[in-house]
Design goal:
Helix content of chain A: 25-40%
Structural class of chain A: alpha/beta
Strand content of chain A: 25-35%
Strand order of the largest sheet of chain A: 6-9-7-8-10
Largest sheet of chain A: 5 strands, mixed, barrel
Oligomer: homodimer
Radius of gyration of chain A: 21 Å
Chain lengths: ~375, ~375
């Protein structure tokens, strides 16, 4: 742990999501991460970048997103250099996304620390989050450890993956060994997880050196390691864009959790609590945003009578709600969603139907 | 019962309703009776008039409605003479409305039979209805009886008033004596009413001679009898409109049921079943109109997933419903209503709030 080996610190904002669970407010041309779902003026990706203040210089922030969304990223993050906006030619999940970023960062910054952040999560306590990210960076830098941020669960959520950690097996500084990954649990299991004190929510935020990730790819996903090598070669040459367009769509779509993290024998976690929520679907707004005394989230011109625990996301039109409970209502110019909060995951069935019916203008 | 005493038969279509329970589809400038709620191309008032075919000649059809709605009535009932469209200067419930019509009809047609029909009820079996109306007219004409059409209840509705009748005490031709009126009952009472076979729904359709009604007014509501005398005097003179505007707003607002029918010692009813519904609020559409296999009424561009027993009344915009049950959704250009079917009577609280907030453009 010599002060002299401080590596460069970079951040990778993963912004490839299509946000279909937030239809009809999010659309293919404007997914969730480029919206301010809670109407507080800042988009989710902008808030993600702002949390890096004092930790990662602007010129070291990278964004990976769909080609069509590069202009949105440029507009919303004007301080990020254009060369740091990396366009995915096709969606291939998180492992290839991080491989692309690692390949570019390795070329430009050497064996830098990569702080990897989803662009579309909500965090209530910004400075607490920045502090935790700082500790994750330090651990990744000083001890070459791969680190995942684990969120201390505040209730038995069944929609998240969980990380089991070993509270005794401390690596110092509040950093612990991960012992297993658990898929989304049922209600009973989730309750047991929360009560045990040995499980954390898998936040999807990571920190590691480029070498640590690339070595893991070589071992567990060699096709991605080869891809990263190719990209590092062509990075900042005229061939970069065409090689990327050629190679990327051929990669397997695999998540970094499934493809890399679960194989890591030495993975560490920092348990943290900073008001995190992945805001995975409309009902989450009732958890993370300000509600009225009846638990209703209200955005727009809303009148309610005998209505509780609803989410109203209006436009210009008046929304009048009478006797509703646990209902999501999202109004846009050309489409209106009315959904039971318990069935929010089925909003995808609507977008599937629209796709099948060739009604792409509504997607 | 001599064939020679056949009086003139007239009809009075009561179209004064403001239809606020169908907000936001019905508005002050376009209430329910001037809409086709079931999207079958004919407005409710037009269908009411059409049921009189072969029974009441066009020139004997009268319409009583708000001043501002006279142009709508003229447009939708072009075959009704303009002089038969009677404008209420203010809403004063049904007893004054019928007094106004009786006063005019008495002047023009003498002691004619008045067939009195609400403009905004739904009737599934048109010819059965016309047959019943014919029998009511005959009873009112031949025996000077006041007659009310009673609907054989098909389920224990708690939203209707009931008429108790005496099944033994027949006056011949399937016409029975009314023994009492009952207010909207609770669920248990409604069940007992239906099971007893002695109760009918109060349909608000009546037949009587002008003299029978005016005599009843003289006895029970003399201020209305005086009003009717004044109107008969000025009817078809240049003073008619100004006298009506002067006198009508001063009348007490009282229903014909409460003010007249309940006092009548000799009131008759014809029990009938012709698929009647007063369509008193949005959930009624699920009863009276065609629904899909999951019991959803669909008008507009509607996609549903796991949704049952809902009413969707859309506009141009797509409505996507996910996991809903017993919900009313009405979409218009400037306002959207989402309402639990069980709370439909509270839609009025929304229109009250809009009035209080000075947002008349939405009413």
């Amino acid at each position: 742990m010599a002060a002299s080996v401080q590596p460069v610190v970079t951040a990778v904002i993963m912004a490839g999501g299509r946000g279909e669970r937030f239809w009809p407010r999010s659309r293919n041309h404007l997914p969730k991460q480029f919206l301010s779902l809670t109407d507080d003026g800042e988009t989710m990706i902008r808030k993600t970048a702002d949390r890096l203040e004092g930790l990662v210089p602007h010129e070291n922030i990278y964004v990976v997103t769909a080609e069509e969304h590069i202009p949105l990223a440029r507009e919303q993050l004007p301080f990020v250099p254009a060369a740091n906006l990396l366009a995915e030619p096709a969606p291939r999940n998180t492992a290839p996304c991080i491989a692309l970023a690692a390949a570019v960062i390795r070329k430009r910054h050497g064996d830098a620390v990569m702080l990897i952040l989803p662009a579309d999560h909500m965090i209530r306590h910004r400075s607490l989050c920045t502090d935790i990210l700082r500790r994750a960076v330090a651990a990744a830098a000083e001890d070459d450890r791969p680190v995942t941020i684990g969120i201390t669960p505040t209730y038995p959520e069944t929609g998240y993956g969980y990380i089991e950690f070993s509270p005794e097996d401390t690596a110092g500084q509040g950093i612990y060994r991960v012992t297993s990954f658990r898929e989304k649990p049922d209600g009973e299991t989730a309750k047991a997880y929360v009560q045990s004190g040995r499980y954390l929510w898998n936040s999807g935020m990571f920190a590691w050196r480029t070498s640590v990730y690339c070595n893991a790819l070589r071992e567990h996903l060699p096709v991605l390691a080869d891809f990263a090598d190719t990209i590092t070669q062509v990075c900042d040459t005229p061939r970069f864009a065409s090689v990327l367009r050629e190679e990327f769509p051929r990669l397997p779509a695999v998540s970094v959790d499934y493809g890399v993290l679960e194989h890591w024998r030495q993975l560490y976690t920092i348990p943290a609590g900073f008001g995190w929520d992945d805001v995975g679907s409309w009902p989450a707004l009732g958890r993370v945003a300000k509600t009225d005394t009846n638990g209703n989230y209200r955005s727009g011109d809303i009148l309610t009578v005998g209505t509780r625990d609803c989410v109203f996301y209006g436009g210009k039109r008046l929304i009048a709600a009478v006797g509703l409970e646990n209902i999501i209502l999202v109004d846009t110019e050309d489409a209106l969603l009315a959904c039971s909060a318990d069935a929010a995951q089925n909003v995808r069935k609507i977008t599937e139907m629209l796709r099948e019916q060739g009604r792409g203008e509504l997607l």
